[in-house]
């Protein structure tokens, strides 16, 4: 169903922003404008953008051209050139977009009277950094030479916390997003929030975001990881989830120190020295350069643990009959997806604690299908495996699903898993113990990592929150739009099939055949 139309473009409920069938607003036209703008950015700065900087610059330009109201996040290592990339890109936008507006009225008509940029940070000193970079770029010798061109003929005037381009009307204004700041009333085409990891969520949502409403503006949030969740972390996770949708544009960009070092060898030499000084596993190094959010308390797992447990040599296994496998099903509820997870178990070699090695073989993601069709898809898909048992959460419609599958799959043990808090806690504890002892892994080959199914699995695992309710542990998706925990539930249901299996105790008794005579 079409929700709204802008400049002839459609925004649908189930799809990303779509370009209309219009020569002026074609993707080819947009790409041509972006390519020309990248040349201006290089000319303005005096050096070309590095490989890891170009995608962010392109996406900022694309978002402003389309007016797609994107919230773009950039989580880059310290001193990686993030501020320079933003300053160069936005300075070029302030100069050129008003002059391109008459040539592309449907695309850039919003900028006829200038591009209005708000540069925010949690406190005034932080805002000085990014604002100062933009001002320095607009008042540099290269910028003044560019603006002296007769076709541009522009002058820059600065006063207090604001710098204006006199003839075209563009401006950049420095503001803070501190909770006590009174910042309502401004209107912008683009808002930049630097050091967003410590920005106040209420101020961003209540005061800053509405400033973009009348202009179809875009928001850019930049920063580095920290110990707690905030508006920056939440928008990053939203962007990662949306990136798994069909036709989605990428709105989150990361550059660890290793990514930067590939394009800037001197940076790599310095950071390797810092690694020796701080320690690679120190909090400071992990936060500033490895871009790891240290959310061990309150989060089910971390991206680092996901990397450790993913087997990069393994692809998904579409069929397996050599040994019995176990299966977990999380039935769909409302907007969720039904997820089926198949897990191989190394039955012959338990460890010294009686735990078995588990490996995810594959996932089946069923969304947008009625239950009658889902039943037969599940049965058909599982026919490729030697299934020992299937675990299904009995809550909601789980008991109905289990009853129906017993009819369709009479030779397989289908187990109703209780949905009370205590029973769920046991499943989560068993799954967490398997992950802690490295007795669980999954396919993470490069071909697998490119699939939407794997991206959804990883995103949901990293999104999942951990709650301690008395003696019970509960894992659930965050209370945010688009967040789900179907893959996590399905995996927990599968591996719980082995929770009660353990090595038999060996008792020593004397053998009377070999006992000595009295």
UniProtKB/TrEMBL annotation:
Name by which UniProt lists this protein: Terminase large subunit gp17-like C-terminal domain-containing protein
Record keyword Ribonucleoprotein present: no
Pfam families: Terminase_6C
Higher taxonomy: Bacteria, Bacillati, Actinomycetota, Actinomycetes, Kitasatosporales
Organism this protein belongs to: Streptomyces vulcanius
Location of the Terminase large subunit gp17-like C-terminal domain: 327-497
Keyword match Nuclease: no
Keywords, sorted A to Z: Viral release from host cell
